Amino acid sequence: MSELQSALIGGFIGGSLGVFGTLVTSYWGPRRLEEWRERRHEELHYGPRKDLLMRMLSEPEPPIRSLRRLSLVTGTTNEECRRLLIDLRARGVLMRGGEEGWALIERYDFSRDPEIPDAVD
Question: What fold is seen in the domain 3-104?
Fold first, then answer.
C-alpha cells in the first residue's frame, strides 16, 4: 500500500470517528445530564414526602388513610400524592362515603375487598 493510500484511509477513519464521536456526545451528554437533574430533583423534592407517607401508612391504626389527609400532610397535589403512593407500593381503596383511601399493599393486599364501608380516616 502506498503512503497516499494509507494517508487517505487514515484520514477517512479518523474523520468518521470524529463525526461519530460528535454525534454521540451531542446526544448522550445532554440526555444524561437531564436524567441526572431529574433524579436529583426527585430525591430532594419528593424524598422527604415519601418518607412521611411511608410513616403514615406504616402506623398500626388506621391501616388505610384518605388521599385528602395524605395530600394535606405532605403538601402535594392529589396527582403527585398518588404517584408517590404507587412508588411506595400502596394501593387505592374506596372508603366510607365514596372517599378515596390508600394502604400499603403489604398490609392490605389485593385479596381484600377494595371497598371498605366502615373504614376510618
Answer: Arc Repressor Mutant, subunit A (1.10.10)
Which tens digits make up the pLDDT trace of 38-70?
A: 888 777 777 889 899 999 999 888 888 999 999
Q: Which residues pair with 90 in a beta bridge?
A: 104
Domain boundaries, the chain: 3-104
Q: Please give the DSSP secondary-structure letter assigned to residue 54.
A: H
Order of strands across the sheet that contains 65-66: 65-66, 100-104, 90-94
Residue 1's SS3 state is coil
Rounded distance between C-alpha atoms, residue 100 and residue 93, angstroms: 6
Candidates 26, 80, 27; CA nearest to 53 is 80
